[in-house]
């Protein structure tokens, strides 16, 4: 399978590298700084499932050529428009686009641009980061990539990707017939975790050990589940039980990529995740004062960051 990976950050570097190791012909569409790192050091992965240093073929955005079976789209949401422009010349009639971004609204945007049939649904459950030195570091043993056709068909192309990924070390990939339901579940999971950890600037254990912390997280979980249900995606009871337990665990150290990005002074997907959920809560008539506070907190952070007034680490 020929795979073009947009971005060689945490997820693009990790899953792209693992699929490359499994035998895919892989190239990375990257901007100049990352391109220099990859040319100098190769694609470096540090992982509980085995470290790797792989040769990485790279192309500049917009110059990836054609003939790709799959484009793995791994940018952050705030880079989506630039990423669309970067992959456009590489999308042919046989190319499937698999975005692994958190959130939901990018699917409609990609479908509007490339046609509904070109776009798969996808989600990643992993904790990974790209260090300043260009190392893709997997932070724990989470390694799940889930994808499927948005119309639920188990098509030859999703089966082929699942078969390739089954040969890859350090990842568990599943082709599923209900990817939109899975993406809503991920949004409830991530949305609750991100609102809580970003608003309170703490991981789930630190929140659970603080007065009222478990109650706040559980209220958020219920409200996000109510939003999903109002959109036709009720959360299964087993899913809710798993996350109630996670958010109540005083020994937990669960954090989100949004909290990591914010603590590093980086850009965050405030509109795509927090703004989206706030709008969806309003539309569904779900109480949303916590959503409002989290979104406001994130937008005020962006103001401060853009003005260069973040404390120096
Ligand atoms: N990290 C995690 O643990 C998880 C992340 N996610 C989600 O996955 C998505 C990706 O996150 P993550 O991998 O952490 O992000 P990263 O910031 O680590 O990687 C994104 C990469 O995309 C590149 N990129 C963006 N736009 C372009 C472009 N136009 N052309 C070329 N390269 C581009 C960036 O390059 P440059 O360096 O040039 O900016 C960057 O290296 C997000 O939606 C996130 O919420 C989901 C689950 C877990
Ligand atoms: C759900 C979670 C926390 C881990 O996959 C995530 O998606 C993130 O950190 O962005």
UniProtKB/TrEMBL annotation:
Pathway: Cofactor biosynthesis; (R)-pantothenate biosynthesis; (R)-pantoate from 3-methyl-2-oxobutanoate: step 2/2. Catalyzes the NADPH-dependent reduction of ketopantoate into pantoic acid. Belongs to the ketopantoate reductase family. This is 2-dehydropantoate 2-reductase. InterPro entries: 6-PGluconate_DH-like_C_sf, 6PGD_dom2, ApbA, KPA_reductase, KPR-Related, KPR_N, NAD(P)-bd_dom_sf. Transmembrane segments: none annotated. GO terms for molecular function: 2-dehydropantoate 2-reductase activity.
